Amino acid sequence: MSASKAISSANPNPLDGLPHWHMETPHILRAALSEARNFKPAQYTIAQTQLPRFPRWTETCSAFSEQVSRVPLPDAVHQNYLCANTRQARNSLIWLLKPGWETRVDLLPISVRPWIIRDRVTGKVFAVLWLEDPVILGKRARKAPQRYADLAESLIGKFLGATPQPPETLIAAPWGTHVETTSGTAPVDLHFLNCALLKLLAKQPTIDEPLDEGLSIPERNRLLFDIVRFRFRKATPLETILRFACQTNARFTSPLKRLNVREMCERIQAYRVIQAEKDARDSIPGRERQAAAGRESARRRSESFLKLLVDTVRVWPAGKKITQTALAEKTGVSERTVRKYWRSIPCQA
């Protein structure tokens, strides 16, 4: 049986495909899965699901030695502790859970719920969330994905009351005999993950932890903007949006200026109003929508002409008589247009 078929047949959350590094060298994963066939059925099932997410060369150590060594994946299968990431890429986000996490994990949607790995030897409990695409690390790597990963790590840490762990953290092998593993979601897209977390944060404004640990002012601004816009997806009174934004802003250790928060809320509210108007127009049948658009266009054109005439009359030279012909020549419109609006000009009424 091929590596991908073995995974699909045993995995309750089947992967769409193998990670690209295993597609390039499938024999390494095939050998690792072959080594895992000697495990008990439950352990083998977990290994089939989890092994494809580990790198081809993995940093490991045993329960009897703290010395870390880098070995091929087939050899790593038999080690007690492994690193899911490499120095060049993050394949997963990892948290060390604290007592009471069981009551908080239900806050997370199933679509972003991490795997729980309980080490019976040390008593430590780790949460591991696999990423669909690795986050490349290093000085020349793109910074945006790294910031998104850090934000997701921070947000989930707050929900679970957990401590984010550095990428080089070694976790207990999920298929180990001394490990109790609770399955989580399939690998997630980082953008989808952050959107889901921000929506959740908008619905759960009562969590007490500060939101801005290590965030710069632009990052705090962006985080607040995302939280507020995900909370209010429809046209809402400005004061309601502002009240929620100020409550959320107060959770920053260094809150943003109230003027900046208000301007942000005004932009969100204006955009939602435009969205609502567009949705209302789109709900009207074609011919009616066309007729309504024509009437709206005529109204705007009429207001534009009237404003032009009124503004011209206001600066008309003193002592010079205003006639329809002179006003038409001055504004560049026809005399017929001037006659149409003549009685609407304040000083001519």
Strand content: 5-15%
Rg calc: 31 Å
Ends: how far apart? 91 Å
- State the share of residues found in helices, binned by percent: 40-55%
The largest β sheet comes out as:
5 strands, antiparallel
Q: SSE string, helix = H, strand = E?
A: HHHHEEHEEEEHEEEHHHHHHH
Number of strands: 9
Q: What's the shape?
A: elongated
Helix-and-strand structural type: alpha+beta
Low-pLDDT regions: 1-16
The average pLDDT value, as a whole number, equals 83
| Helical segment count | 13
What spatial order of strands do you see in the largest sheet?
7-4-6-5-9
Descriptive overview:
Residues 1-16 have low confidence and may be disordered. The chain is elongated and about 105 Å long. The strands form two sheets. The chain has a five-stranded antiparallel beta sheet with strand order 7-4-6-5-9, covered by helices on one side. The protein has a four-stranded antiparallel beta sheet with strand order 2-1-3-8. The longest helix has 29 residues, at 286-314. The chain has 13 helices and nine strands. By secondary structure, it is of the alpha+beta class.
Describe the secondary structure blueprint for this structure.
Layout lengths: L2 H8 L9 H5 L1 H11 L4 H10 L6 E5 L7 E4 H4 L4 E3 L5 E8 L18 E5 L5 E12 L6 H18 L2 E2 L5 E3 L6 E4 L7 H14 L13 H15 L6 H12 L8 H25 L3 H29 L9 H8 L3 H7 L8
Antiparallel strand pairs: 1-2, 1-3, 3-8, 4-6, 4-7, 5-6, 5-9
Helix pairs in contact: 1-4, 6-7, 7-8, 8-10, 9-10, 12-13
